Structures are given as structure tokens and as C-alpha cells.
Amino acid sequence: MTNDVILITPKPITLERINMGRADNLGYISIMKNYAVSEKADGERFLLFVDKDGEAFLINNIKNVRGTGLNAPALKNSLFDGELVLCSERKNDSTHDLFAIFDVYLLNGKSVKDLPLIPDRYDIMKKHVSMMKTTSSHEFVVKQQLYASDGETILDKCNEILSNHSSYNYKIDGLVFTPMKLPVFGYYANKPVSVSANMKWDRVFKWKPPEQNTIEFIVKETGIFHTYGDGSRYKEFQLYVGFNIENNEMIDVLTGLTRRYDKRYKPRNRNSIYELREYILEGKAQKAHIAVNENTGNCYTTDTNELVLNNSVVEFSYNTQNVMLSNERRWIANRIRHDKNRIYNFGSGPITKTANDWDVAMNIWRSISKPITYDMITGKTSIEFSESDIDVELSSDDKYYNRFNDKDSSKLISSKMIFFHNRIIKSMLYEYPAIKGGNRGNIIELACGQGSDIDRWMFARYKFVFGVDYVKDNIENPVSGIYKRLLTKYYKTKKENKDRYFPTMIFVIGDCKHKLESGEAAKGLDKTSEDILKIVLGKRGYSDKKFSHLNIFNDYHNVSFDVASCMFSIHYFFQDEASLGGFLNNVVSNLKKDGVFICTFMDGKTVEDKLHSNHGSLLGIDPTSEAVVWAIKRNYSENQRSPYGKQINVYIENSGKFIAENLVSFSLLENKCNEVGLKLESSEMFETTFNKTISSTNDKYIKDNLQLLDNDPNLKEFSFLNRWAIFRKIN
Question: What pLDDT, on the 0 to 100 scale, is given for residue 236?
Fold first, then answer.
């Protein structure tokens, strides 16, 4: 089988306690509603492909192919997913291997992956398994998908499976939870997605008894032996996991600037982005001490009594019961993963598909350290959640629980609203200042986020973009952070056209309610950012040796700006009067005379009136998928007199969690801007701008996209809560 063939095999992730929370809570994925459960067999995952001649073959995750002896012409060009249980692993002394089907993606050349599991894909499986006659070597069945009916919960179905485990003729080592209504790889009912290579799907979960939760490490001998008090001797092994550098290694400010502006920097080769890394928990590299056999001098696995060799893939469990043991002895080598050792070949083969990835290992570790017990999964013991478990606060290290990245943005129900906000509102604001000398000058982005406006900064032809954001992950995230976006966009742009205009951009970590030019905004958050703020915005000269490999600060120090911008973030500074005052002082002190301040925000009075009319809660539900797309909850008392600190919780699908915001009083903002020398030049509610644009535009592409939003009253309601404003510095 060729390497360009894409295998549709969504891998389940380990179920965590948060996934058993109330289904009506937003911000996390819960199995308590619209999920089916099936038994997890102790077998190997295979795809069953029936070719154009009706011959059926099994294909595993490394594209090895094996025959089945099945000929089923009625199923030609079909693709099923399932687990292969070898005859030696079956309980009934069968001489046949068993292929247990749990999904179907293709039937007679027609894709069925976009159908919901229940009832459609499940019915297809049950109907067509009768055409898979037992061969001399294989038997074929469909796994039963159980789901809650009236008066039941999914946990009742878990109990049904686990309490009847002896009725299955193969060993059950857990449960698998699959969304009932979603297409394969989908996020919403009735909204299919296209499949691409290496896709992940965080909607399918697996549960195993806590004592069976294991992590697969590559082990390396350290050459150190330990003798414990009872005289037993142990060999020390370092534990390693796979590590995707591009996906997991944070891009700090200095690294981001180096990759962009150091002419000596060469982008990493694609073949070198995946490597072995020590497995680290709470800052400590993990090691295992494995008992040495007195007779042979070797170490062996506990379950299978197999030799543990240097540079091999070993499956480990963790002893959570005996807290008196050292951490190293609590790692238990269970068995050798021979299938993965054939790939890794003691270090001479590739790392991929061998040791668990770092993020997978961490997912499993959370299930080990905070286990879901048998009694929990069967509903005999409840799991209590507190507010700290489902955090709604935004901190400097916040990582949104379920954020969509750029590649996923087309899947968003709200994409039509985002088009209006980006293409119409933001573009209009960014292009408001006149072009002088071929560009619009310098812009400072206060709360720049993850850089979703990079395209607009380019198109508007800004010469220099300086961004500040309080959330460290927005700057450093290796997948969706602003430096990752900058580098991806820069190299893509220059590859397409090396002469194409591209602004100079610098981004730092900082709290924009504190003074920027002194570096105070970054103090305690990031030292590099603190230094850069002093150079770019302050009076400090460029002399810091750690920036000597960069020539960017020769041109950009003690900068003033033509435009200051704050898109959908000014609400943070309405916490109290000091925060708003500090923010506006940063705006005015960094703007040139006659410079403009542009901003967008939810209009506080509009939101407040709607919350009052709707008992303190607003909810936007997509009628097609029945998914909650947005929600607003009031956290302040209606008797509150102060315009500051009127907190609401806002949920939007692309953040995937509730975020605390403060209502923005437009009249207060206008008054405070006047006090610091910023005069209101223009302002409008989004609804007014929308109606003007859709009625006046001659651009068919824009009109068609705005029409999509016009046909969606749910999204329009949320969009039209917003306002934009332009202020000009008058002294």
C-alpha cells in the first residue's frame, strides 16, 4: 500500500473526569448526552477494505495488509473499521480470528462517513454484516452500540456491558464512547467535514480500568543500579516519549524574533520535527527502577516475563496505591510492545508510531492521577465538580479548552459572522487612516491575541506592527500562537512572491493596563518582553547583547504610532477605573498627534438591556445542529451602580469555554477618552454597518457571504450586540 493513501481511523482519547460532567454545561465535551458506548476488545485496530472484485483485506495503522479469505461482491468498494481478536485470544477455543466491526465509512463506493452513527451508520453495519460469511480463517460481527433511552443514562449502559463481561467470547479491556449524531471527524450534527492526512478527532473517548491505564515509553538504560533496604537490586531506565517540536515546543518572544529576523536562521527540516524527549512530570524527568533477576542479571516485565532491553518500547502502568514506594519503583513495566519495536528497531527505525506522543502520555497520566473508577463509570459513585474544575477565568497562562485553530475555522458555525467582523468591520477600521508614502505607518495592537489580523495588517500596508498581549499562550503557542502565525505567513508569502510587501512585526507579553514604555506591563510576566518594551517604546537605547543577532531594533526604538488598536478586548480594562485609565494612558502616550485609536466591543447598554429582558441569560442555538454557538450569562447584580466590573460570562464556539468579560459603557469610554485628549470621530453599531453594506455593495462575493449571515438570525443577534468606534488624538 502506498504512503499517499489516507487511513480514516480516528483514534479515541482517554476519558477524563471533566468529560463526565453535566451535558448542559458549556466549555467541555461530555459523554452524558448523545453518546453511544461499546465494549473495547483486547485486540488490534484494523480497517476492513472490500475491493472492486469483492475481495476483503485487513489494513492496520502502518498500512500492513493481510487477507481474510472473504469474498463479498455485494460489498465491493466498501470500508469498515473494527478490532481484530485473534483466535488464541478468544474464550471459546474458536479456530477463527474475529473481526468486530464498530464503524463504516464507505459502502459500494459511496461515502457514508457524513451520516450520524445512530441510527444510520450503525444500521448499515448491522444490515451488511450478514454478507460477510465466515471464512476458513475469519468470523465477522458488529459490536453493539448502546445508548440511553428515557429514564436511563449512558452510565447505565456502561454497567450493562461491564457487569456482563463474561457473555462476550473475548476479553474486554474497557469501553469506547462515540458521538451518536456527528459525522466522522465532525463537530456538529448535520455538518460534514472533509478528511485530510493526520486528522485528529477529540470526540471519541476510551475508558479502561484505572489499573490498566498504561503509557508506552521508549526506555534507555542510564547505567545506574540501585540497591534498596531489603537487598533487592534494580536497574535504572530513563523514560522517553515522542515529541512533535512544531506542535509542543513553545515559541517564546526571543525565539520568535530570531526565527523571523536572524538572517542566519534556517527553518527546521520537516524530517527533524519529531524526536524523543524525556517524559517530565512536575518538572522532574521520569525514571523507572526495574528489579534485576538474581540468576540472569536481566530485567523482565511483570505481566509477560519478557526481557526488557535498552532502546525498546515498553508498556508501563503506575502504582497509585503504594505511596511508600519511590516514584521510580511505582512505574511498572508490564509488557514489551513487539509490534512497535519492529518499527523502532532499537533506535535504527523511525520514532513515529512507537512510544506514545507527549500529549497522549499526558492525557493518560491525568486519567492515572485522577482516575475514573469502576464505580464512577457505572454510575454507582458520582463525580462532584467545583468551579475550579471548570475554570472561567482568563489568566496569563490560559489555554482555551477547546479552541479551534486556523485549519479548523472553516468548520465553525459562526464562520459567516466572522467573515462580516473581519472582512467588513475590521478591514474598514484598519484601512481608515490614509496611506502616506506607500504605507499607513505604525500600528500598536493592544491585546493582539493570537494574531488573527495579520492578513489585514498586511493588506492595509502598515509599515510596523507592535503587539502586546497579556495571555502568554497567545504569543507562544506552537500551533496557534502569534509567532507561529507570523512565521507561517511570512515564509508562505515569500515563497509565493519574494517581493511581496510584508510589514515588520514584533509581539510581546504584557498587561496593557500598566505602563508600557517603562516595561512595567511585562514585569513578572516575561523579562524579554520587558526589555523590548523599554527599547521600542521607551527612551532606552538599543544595546542589549541578547538582541545583538537581530538588526530589527536599529530601526525600531523609541517608536510612536499612527494607529492604536484594540479589537474585542477593551472589556478587560473596564474592571475598575484605574485599569481603564492605565490603558487609555498607554493609547494616548504612544500615539502621534492626529493619530487614531480604533476599537470594537460589545456595547454594554445593548447587552445589559437584553439580559434584563431575558432573566440574565442569552443563548444562541444553531437550528441545524442544535449546538450552542454562543451564550452570555450575567454575573453582576442589577442593583450595581458602578459602571465598572459589571462582569458577564461569554461563550463562543471558537474559544470553547466561558470567558469572563466586563460590560463596556460606550458613554463612559467616550468621556474617559475626552479626558486624555482622544476625541470621538465616528462610531456605529454593527447592525447599522451591516445593513448599509449589504444594500450598497456591488461585490458579489461579499454580498453572498453577508446574505448567509442575514439568513441566520441566531448569529445576527450576537453580532449586532457589538459596536465599533474611532477616536483621534487632538493634542
Answer: 98
